[in-house]
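Protocol step 4 of 5: obtain the predicted structure for the target chain.
Materials: sequence only (see below). No template structures provided, no constraints applied. The aim of this step is simply to have a reference model before the mutagenesis design in step 5. Sequence pasted as it appears in the construct record:
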Amino acid sequence: MIDILNLVTGGVIGAAAALVFSAMRLKSSFEYFEVAFNSYFANRNDPASREVVEAFESFSEDVHGFESALDRLKKALRRK
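Step 4 output (structure tokens):
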């Protein structure tokens, strides 16, 4: 029973570690895109552009919330 528990625990930790590394790549790509997006829309104030910017801002908040959750996961993995 202990061996199965160790395998499951190791699998969960391995999956969590893979998630963290994947998220780090996503974060880097998102930061690059965010700068380019903000630069492109900086001087656009037409209604369609404002709608896109507002949607992106909502998405950006979700991404930053995801980053915060991953930071907590990384801290939890370091304790193991």
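Step 4 remarks: The CA atoms of residues 49 and 55 lie 10 Å apart. The chain has a mean pLDDT of 84.
Proceed to step 5.
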